[in-house]
Amino acid sequence: MKSIKNHLSLIVALVSILFSIQIFVIVERSIDAYKQNLANNYSVVVVSQKTITQKQFFRINKLINEVKVLSPDNVIKRLNSGIDKSNMDFLKLTLPKFYKLHLKKYPSPREIKRLRKDLLNNRFVIKVEDFSNTHDTIYRLLVLFKNVVLVFAAVVSLVTMLLILKELRIWQFKHNERMSIMGLFGAPTWLRSAVLFRLSIVDAIISSIIVFVIFSLIASSHWILNEFNNINISVVIFDNVGDFFVLFGISIVLSILLASMIVLGHKEEV
Q1: Helix spans in the chain (H)
Q2: For residue range 148-199, what is the model confidence (pLDDT) as tens digits?
Q3: Which end of the chain has fewer beta carbons closer than 10 Å to its terminal beta carbon, N or C?
Q4: What span, in angstroms and rounded, lies between the C-alpha atoms of 270 and 261?
């Protein structure tokens, strides 16, 4: 019963750490997907005195992904009050050129300022509308949300690691007599602590499997998928191969590292 309790405490702690890490990964993927969605809908309007080709725009700034020419027909129709065809053609030629620029990604405020500066450095560009106020607000909200989740995951992981260290320390005190006897007979440190490492590794494997099952169920949940569809983004909630092996590796390394800290601490006390 005590053995099960020891295992359960370590498993719950490791599951908490792995769960926090995967939640942060999901949030990061969601933000990246949402940024891409915003980038597809976000555009910069440029007014130019003369025609600027796509290649010229691409040379101005690498962030520019697509250039669309805005037709002046709508503006002319509003001004049209019996203008004959020849004057209308002349008006089209004299009106400035309007372009809508789509970007490769959702830019940071610094990238927007740089893009604006690069565009205005072109001698033909007379105005740039980048909707910076709205853009900056959305970008800062995304960064804030990501940082909050990161801090939360870090705090949970730190507190849980301290709990794991405490559990392993308790286990060491319970077996201190047996380990001391083995030391008197010349057993090396790794052999005296073999059970501790085995306990850590077994719990790490069990924790990884539990997290795998939890996130596999979450990834197949229709409610979760509908929530992502409602904000028009597609996110890989859990990669059964890639994410599992990353979490498994973190669990094993963390368990061995914490067990090693306990063993080294015990060695120093001797």
Answers
A1: 2-41, 54-60, 73-79, 85-94, 109-120, 132-174, 176-184, 189-192, 194-219, 222-230, 242-269
A2: 888 888 888 888 878 777 777 766 666 565 555 555 555 555 556 667 778 7
A3: N
A4: 15
Q: Which residue has the tokens 């959305």?
A: 138
- Return the domain boundaries, the chain: 2-37+148-269, 43-130
Q: Which residue has the higher pLDDT, 70 or 179?
A: 70
φ, ψ dihedrals at 127, nearest 5°: -155, 145
User: Are the C-beta atoms of residues 113 and 63 closer than 8 Å to each other?
Assistant: no
Q: Which residues pair with 129 in a beta bridge?
A: 45
Residue with tokens 């028009």: 232
Q: In what order do the strands lie in the sheet with 97-103?
A: 64-70, 97-103, 43-48, 125-129
Region 35-55: mean pLDDT is: 84
| Highest CATH level, class, for 43-130 | alpha beta
| CB within 8 Å of 194: residues ≥ 6 apart | none
Q: Which amino acid is at 179?
A: M
Whether the predicted model's global pTM rises above the 0.90 cut: no
Give residue-wise pLDDT tens across range 95-123: 788 888 988 888 888 888 899 999 999 88
Residue 17 contacts residue 210 (beta carbons within 8 Å): no
Q: Half-sphere exposure (CA, 13 Å, Cβ side) for 91?
A: 16
